[in-house]
Amino acid sequence: MTRPLVLCHAVWLEVFRRRDFYVLLILMTAMFAWLLSADLFGSSAASRYVLDVGLLYAWGGSLILAVTAAARQLPRDEEIGAVFMMLAKPVTRWDMVFGKWLGTWSVSVGATVALYLAVLAVSALRGRMPDAVSVCQALLLHGCALGVVSALALAISTRMSFGAASTTAFVLLAADYAVVPKIPELIGGETGLRADLLLLLYKGLPHLEVFDLRRRLIHGWGAAPASAILISVAYGVAVTGALLALAWLGYRKKRFPRQGG
Amino acid sequence: MDGWTRWSERGDPRAGWAAVVLFAGAAFALSCRLDPEAVIGTGAGVSGVERALGGARSLLSAGLYERADQYFHKGVPHRRRAAYRDFFVRLRELVSPDAHLHAEGAEMAEVMPWLSLAARADERNVEAYNVAAYWLLKMGDDRESERVVAEAVSKNPRDYRPMVELARIRLFRGEFISAASAIDRGIALWPVPDTEESESARHDLSWFLDMRASLYEFQGRGSEAVACLRRGLSLFPARTNSLGRIARIESGELDPAGAERQLRNVFGGGKTVCAREEDEADHEHEHEHEH
User: Fold this and answer.
1) CA-closest candidate to residue A70, choices A203, A173, A141, A139
2) Which pLDDT belongs to residue A131?
3) How far is A186 from chain B (nearest CA, A)?
4) How far apart are CA B271 and CA B136, in angstroms?
5) What is the average pLDDT across A143-163?
6) Under-50 pLDDT residues of chain B
7) Which range among A25-39, A191-205, B254-268 shows the weakest confidence by mean pLDDT?
8) Is residue B220 exposed (0-12), middle (13-18) or buried (19+ Cβ within 10 Å)?
9) Is residue A257 in a domain?
10) Residues from chain B contacting residue A254 (CB–CB below 8 Å)
11) What span, in angstroms and rounded, lies between the C-alpha atoms of A238 and A17?
12) Under an 8 A CB cutoff, do B113 and A43 touch?
């Protein structure tokens, strides 16, 4: 277990060196400054929209961070030759895959916690604070979604360059967010090949919508039933495990020719 | 180098085809998110730049307006009925509740930012201004409501629709003479091009005529009141309740007190029927027919 933790630590150092997270925070500050200063039909009593936009930003920002961080780990190590140094040590391919995933997942969860704290602080300034149980549930499920997304991007990156892997992961995420939750409604009016394609998407892509508790937080619906949270967490762990296994299968026999050799 | 990595990094034509397929997927995903009913400005007087960018602005505005509708329904989006309910649909319903509830009282203030953003995104989205003005008035903030209507009028000077809310504000305050001038202006501007046949435009004209008839009756001008009522009846011939009123006024029995009561009832009984309720009623109606 120590070897994946060392790799995880290396991912944290790399992310901090690249300053991705600072960019997210600066953009968020600018967005809040605009939202809080805009004249919105004299709605000084309104506060949900701040929480809503902030949480949407936290979701978007953390997903972008998870995908870009996960998709670049393995291709970058291959590009700069660091992979030879690591594999010369007693580090297995599974250690590499799991350590990189652990690093990118924990970095994106850390960023998410920081973004949630910032959003909740601004929302509290506007006089709205969601209940603590709902916040903890939302963070837990958000973390599960980031685990799935990190594993997905990592699995794709075992067989593609960083650019191709991150683009593919973003397109899959866009389909996941925009199409998959609507398929049970869309499929009613479809037949033949279109219906088959929609069903393929529905069965093949992870269901990130079961990790999204924003509606409960923003509109005060209260905490979700514990059974639903447990099922969602179990689903997230299962999908993450399956994607990591797929990543390992794609990486375990991969050859790394030396650059210029 | 590994084959998969090679084709994605170098100029292999397969990478181009993969990109085309991926972008087609992204476009498909995006098209499922955008509201197909958004109005795109194509009328006369629209500049080339507005034509190019107007569609995007209208779509953005329609999306923000839809967000306001979601806030009115406590965050629940308008969904079509699912063809099936599997494990994931049931789990999503547990995680994100989807009961049909409406925001009430002070909660309506939460809708305002989205209506404001929708109006900022597309200044021709008069619906966003009008809904904001209506709810601000209903919350008792007639001053802010009037400011919103004034903004709508300045951005859309040839549109009759802001006059509906302006007249409502004036009636709410009991300023009947200025309400009459807002109604007359609204009737003069009616309709917006291409909306003569729309149900909501005819409802608006009918409301103008009904209120104008009451104002005339309140002032003791029976023949003008009857003319308004007859014109309103021609829009909706099935509304036969106007016939009794016409007969009463024509027989010389004017009721200024009754007319004033109607003029002060600016929210029409206070029941707000949302489109989703109508959809649900339609669905239940269809269901009854199926059986």
Assistant:
1) A173
2) 92
3) 8
4) 16
5) 95
6) 1-5, 7-11, 34-44, 287-291
7) A25-39
8) exposed
9) no
10) 2
11) 32
12) yes
What ipTM score was computed for the predicted complex, to two decimals?
0.85
Spell out the alpha helix ranges (H) of A89-213: 93-125, 132-157, 162-178, 183-186, 192-204
Pick the CATH number of B163-269 from 3.30.200, 2.60.40, 2.40.50, 1.25.40: 1.25.40
Q: Are the beta carbons of A46 and B109 separated by less than 8 Å?
A: yes
Find the CB nearest B79 among A46, A185, A187: A185
CA distances from A35 to A38, A44, B113 (A): 5, 12, 9
Q: Which of B162, B262, B169 is nearest to B204 (CA)?
A: B162
Backbone φ and ψ for B41, nearest 5 degrees, come out as -65, 120
Which tokens belong to B19? 């990109």
Identify how many contiguous H helices and E strands chain A contains and give both numbers.
11, 0
For tokens 């809904």, what's the residue? Answer: B131
User: Quick one: pLDDT at residue B123?
Assistant: 92
Kindly tell me the sign of the dihedral angle through the C-alpha atoms of B8, B14, B19, B25.
Answer: negative
Distance CA A251, CA A98 (A): 11
Match 């903030």 to its residue by tokens.
Answer: B141
Q: Which of B89, B94, B95, B123 to mutate to test the interface with A (most CBs of A within 10 A)?
A: B95
- Among the partner residues B23, B85, B110, nearest to A49 by beta-carbon distance: B110
Q: Which two tokens stand for residue A118?
A: 């910032």
d(CA A96, CA A77): 11
Residue B97 CA to residue B231 CA, distance in Å, equals 46
Name the pTM for this structure. 0.78
> Is B33-42+49-77+98-157 assigned to CATH 1.25.40?
yes
The whole-angstrom distance between B148's CA and the closest CA on chain A is 7
Distance of CA A214 to the CA centre of its chain: 15
Domain ranges of chain B: 33-42+49-77+98-157, 163-269
A112: closest CA of chain B, how far (Å): 20
Cα radius of gyration rounded to whole Å, chain B = 25
Say if residue A39's pLDDT is above 80: no
